[in-house]
Amino acid sequence: MRVTAATDSVQDEKTETFGIRELKLDEKGHWYLNGKRVFARGMRYHSSIWLGKGNEGLFKQDLGRMKEMHINAVRIGSHVEKPRLYELCDEMGFMVWQVFPLHWGNYADTDDVIERAAPMMEEMVRMLYN
Predict the structure, then answer these.
(1) CATH number where 44 lies
(2) Which domain holds residue 23?
(3) What is the phi/psi pair of residue 98, to 5°?
(4) Distance separating alpha carbons of residues 109 and 99, to the nearest angstrom
(5) How far apart, in whole angstroms, are the C-alpha atoms of residue 90 and residue 116?
(6) What residues are paired with 38 via a beta bridge?
(7) How many CA atoms lie within 13 A of 84 on its CB side?
(8) pTM for this predicted structure
(9) From start to end of 65-110, where are the E strands?
(10) Selection from 49, 25, 33 nearest residue 94 by Cα
(11) Total number of domains in the chain
(12) What is the pLDDT of residues 24-60, one digit of tens each?
């Protein structure tokens, strides 16, 4: 997106990758991505036990190793990684399964928990949606 003034000078500019994908599961349990059959070979990923240490260099190194192992899907659970990891996954052709951080645990189904979880879910979706 580019915003210009009446003088045709650029005031602000933002580039964002966008793609439309179709993921289907047939009656035999086969997955299709954009009409092409895929077999998900995945693994769970934590960039570091210290989440703040994740960085582009580490992400590229880890994703590169996954490519060498013919991994094509990454499951990120219990937390949300830095946006750059998701960008690199997209650029390198990884499918991402993002788990909601409160997916495990003994949380009661109460209005209080839902009230606290809803903003977290909204923030995560805004960050990751395409």
Answers:
(1) 3.20.20.80
(2) 2-128
(3) -95, 120
(4) 18
(5) 30
(6) 31
(7) 11
(8) 0.79
(9) 73-76, 95-98
(10) 33
(11) 1
(12) 999 999 999 999 999 999 999 988 888 788 999 999 9
